[in-house]
Design brief:
Largest sheet: 9 strands, mixed
Structural class: alpha/beta
Radius of gyration: 22 Å
Strand content: 5-15%
Order of helices and strands: HHHHEHEEHEHEHEHEHEHEHHHEHHEE
Helix content: 40-55%
Distance between the termini: 50 Å
Strand order of the largest sheet: 1-2-6-5-4-3-7-8-9
Number of helices: 16
CATH class of the domain at 102-288: Alpha Beta
Shape: globular
Length: 377
């Protein structure tokens, strides 16, 4: 079912509020039930967590202005509960609460394969990426990449030039959906906004900066069933995308290259570490044929809203908060271990951890572990 305009606005306000990341928003809505109720509960939860200052909640007028800006740019916003939100992305623990899109919205639904690689790609590397993308798109697969120089650009162009009826291509950008980067990709940017699809997590008008790119990379891999690396140096951002893919349960493949070329060492290392070696699009499809798709474990199923209404969670949280704080330190500890030692229910502990998280006092780690951020004296 389509969500209401009000619900979409509430999700946008949560996403644009200060200091609240995707995992925290997921937990917040799990406790409160809806984005609207989460907005109402935020100030008190932050206060109870011991924050040094109040949380900055995105004003309704600012969110409405962003939606108006998107409409003027020919783009739209998709919130996490919207039926148009891609299933594979929704399954991520840190799925973006909202994404903005411009172009062919239907490209979000078919199977997708990511093609990424070096910005300073060789002529051979660009040709390989273009041929891979054209072959995949011709087979009905949507090619995802990051619209960077080099391999990304070749991949997008290869998919776009595959002809009518091809799978198409999605560019996930590090800035706003309306911001061109890099500047020399102006013509490609225009084509993607009409013939392909541009996806962004940041608000419109956001200029890309260094810390945005790893966040963008998790979306490239999160949308895709597999990531194929074509040329990557040992410290390439493409290897971050590959690591994201592995963490997300996606397949990682790589095209081998000359050991004499530094641009190939990252891809070659991926192969040594177990990535599938592929040389053309047919091998990519063959590698996926017969394999189960990624395990789309939906994290939002941990919904405590009903349980919270059945118990006096606030008073229980007050009872165990000091004990939880005494058990936490700079070293990560399993959440299940905290439940056991505090003799409280998961919803109660979850509320305490959520309060601390919103107050900026908690750090979350892989494997359902948490630690306390030590405050300066």
């Amino acid at each position: 079912m389509a969500i209401s305009d009000q619900e979409r606005l509430d999700w946008l306000r949560l996403a644009r509020s200060g200091g609240i990341g995707p995992v925290t928003i997921r937990d917040l809505i799990a406790f409160c039930g809806t984005a609207g109720k989460a907005l109402e509960a935020l100030p008190d939860l932050v206060r109870r967590g011991g924050a040094a200052r109040p949380v900055r909640i995105c004003a309704k007028q600012d969110a409405e202005r962003e939606l108006e800006t998107l409409a003027k740019r020919g783009a739209r916003l998709i919130a996490r509960p919207d039926p148009d939100y891609p299933e594979a992305l929704a399954a991520l623990e840190d799925a973006p609460p909202v994404i903005t899109v411009k172009g062919r919205l239907e490209l979000l639904q078919p199977e997708k394969i990511a093609l990424v690689g070096a910005r300073n790609a060789s002529a051979n590397g660009r040709r390989i990426a273009s041929d891979l993308a054209a072959g995949l798109a011709g087979a009905g697969v949507v090619v995802t990449s990051g619209m960077a120089r080099g391999i990304d650009t070749a991949a997008h162009l290869g998919a776009l030039n595959a002809g009518p009826g091809a799978g198409g291509t999605i560019a996930v950008v590090a800035g706003g959906v309306d911001i061109l980067y890099p500047p020399e990709n102006g013509a490609l940017f225009e084509r993607l906004g009409v013939e392909g699809l541009i996806v962004a997590e940041s608000p419109p008008g956001t200029e890309p900066i260094a810390r945005h790119f790893p966040r963008r990379n998790r979306i490239i891999s999160g949308l895709s069933r597999a990531v194929v690396v074509v040329e990557a140096a040992l410290k390439s951002g493409s290897l971050i995308t590959a690591r994201c893919a592995l963490d997300q349960g996606r397949e990682v493949m790589a095209v081998p290259g000359s050991p004499l070329d530094p641009r190939c060492r990252g891809a070659n290392r991926l192969i040594r570490e177990g990535a599938r070696l592929v040389e053309d699009f047919a091998q990519v499809l063959e590698s996926l044929d017969g394999l189960a798709g990624p395990n789309l474990k939906f994290h939002e199923n941990l919904n405590f809203a009903d349980q919270v209404s059945e118990i006096n969670t606030l008073s229980e949280a007050d009872r165990v908060r000091d004990e939880v704080l005494s058990l936490l330190g700079p070293s990560p500890v399993m959440v299940d271990e905290l439940v056991r030692q505090c003799h409280c229910s998961p919803p109660v502990l979850g509320m305490v951890l959520l309060e601390l998280d919103l107050a900026g006092r908690l750090e979350r780690h892989p494997g359902n572990r948490v630690s306390l951020l030590m405050q300066a004296a």
